[in-house]
Every structure is written in structure tokens, then in C-alpha cells.
Design brief:
Blueprint lengths: L1 E10 L2 E11 L4 E5 L6 H9 L5 E9 L2 E2 L5 H7 L1 E3 L7 E5 H15 L7 H14 L10 E2 L5 H15 L3 E6 L6 H14 L5 E6 L12 E6 L2 E6 L1 H10 L2 H10 L1
Parallel strand pairs: 3-10, 3-11, 6-9, 9-10
Antiparallel strand pairs: 1-2, 1-4, 4-5, 7-8, 11-12
Helix pairs in contact: 2-3, 3-5, 5-6
Bound molecules: adenosine-5'-diphosphate (ADP) and magnesium ion (MG) (2 copies).
Amino acid sequence: MLSIKDLKVNIEDKAILRGLNLDIKPGEIHAIMGPNGSGKSTLANVLAGREEYEVTDGSVTFEGEDLLDMDVDERAQKGVFLAFQYPVEIPGVSTATFLKSAVNAVREARGEEELKSIDMLKLLREKTAMVGMDQKFLQRSLNEGFSGGEKKRNEMLQMALLEPKLAVLDETDSGLDIDALKIVADVVNQMRDANRSFLIVTHYQRLLNYIVPDHVHVLVNGRIVKSGDKSLALKLEDQGYDWVKGEAALAE
Ligand code: ADP
Ligand code: MG
Ligand code: MG
């Protein structure tokens, strides 16, 4: 489904990702862990199509097509969901209006008809309940004055509505309390199925107590230096990153 080959990425001429390889098959959940500054968010941002990142080598294909060649909307229309670390605020645009247009844009790209108002309303109701969000949020301006937990719920609502084939989530340690982590885990677990894949970027093992990944990868200094199953996450929680860094330094 997603294939990353020898990906090299610079920011302001500094090499951040230095040859990253990753293959994600349908139905798999992959977790990327690693010490601060190792390039985890850079990877998520490159997949999201953010512009300040310069890809100098390698490739990323999604279902055989060049992902890096697609603009941000195209990525969403093809079924890639990219949650942002800091979702934008759009004053004056209600959350409902934003979500409706996002859903219809993706439907249109898939060759499906726009949802009738009544069906859209039904869908919004169903998914807001799924993420445990109060219906009142839908009337508020997008993200304006939302608390961290509310932003997270809103992001998970977007994911639930868009039903992507692949979701990339960047869960930083900053500002995410245990309740927010549980929201993420709860929605991911509800959406998990044989055809949908997730790439979950996370600093702490904590989230992986709630979402059991199929594969865990450790990113150090712009490369995946170790991969394993969920027990690798437990070992990192227990022993930290120093032992992996040591192994990685020896391999250089
Ligand atoms: P992680 O998410 O693993 O903590 P990041 O991908 O955020 O790591 O950062 C990797 C490196 O790239 C760090 O050294 C960071 O300072 C640098 N970096 C990230 N984003 C930018 C940016 N927009 N401009 C300059 N340097 C950046
Ligand atoms: Mg960081
Ligand atoms: Mg980060």
C-alpha cells in the first residue's frame, strides 16, 4: 500500500531523513518511535506534502502511484489521511461546513455523488457519536478556541468521516494527556480493519498500550535502525533509546 524507498529529506540544506525505507501492507498498523529530533515529524510532514521539506532522493509510492507528486488534496482524495500536529483554525467557518466540504470533495474524487443534506447530517451524527464529541462542536468555528482534547477529537472525527485507506498520525508528547491518547486509540481501534492501514508516529510507548501495532520501528538520526513487534516498544519504554543509539552508531 505505502512503499518508502531510500527517502532522503533536507530542511534548509541540513539532512534530516538519510535513507529511510518502509513498507506498509493493507491492514497493518506501524508505529514509528525514536528520540526527539530523530526526524519522526519530518517523515509525517513529508507524507502530508508540507512544502518546507526538500526531498533529495528516494521515492514514496501509494498503491503504486508517486505520492510525492500529488498535491495535498490529491493525497486525501486517493485515500491518505494526514493528521496535523497543530490543526489550523479557520474563524468564521463552522466545523460542520468544513467537514461537509471535505467529505464531498473526497466523494467527488471517487466518482460518488454529493451526499444529500439529510444523509450528510446522519453521517455527521453517527461519526460525532463515534468519537464521543458533542454535536454542539459542529456549530463552532473550526478549531477556534478548541482545547487540545477537542482538537484531537475533531481530527479523529475527520478521519472517521473520510474513511481513508491509510492514516498517518503524528502524536507528539507535547500537550497530549491520557484522555486524548485514549480518544486516538479508541477511534483507531474502531476503524482498524483488513484493508485500512495506519502509520502512527509517537514519542512515547504509552499510546501503544492502547493501540497494538503490528510493527514497531525506531528512527534514529534519520534512519530506521531497528524494527520489531510490540515487544520492541515495551523494551524502549523500559530501557530508553540509548541502547538502540549505540547499535546504530556501531552500524554507521
Ligand atoms: P522528531 O519529530 O523526531 O522529534 P523532527 O522531524 O521534528 O524530529 O526534527 C528533526 C530535525 O529537523 C531536528 O533537528 C529539527 O530541529 C529539524 N527541523 C524540523 N523541522 C524544521 C524546520 N521547519 N526548520 C528547521 N529545522 C527543522
Ligand atoms: Mg520533536
Ligand atoms: Mg515530532
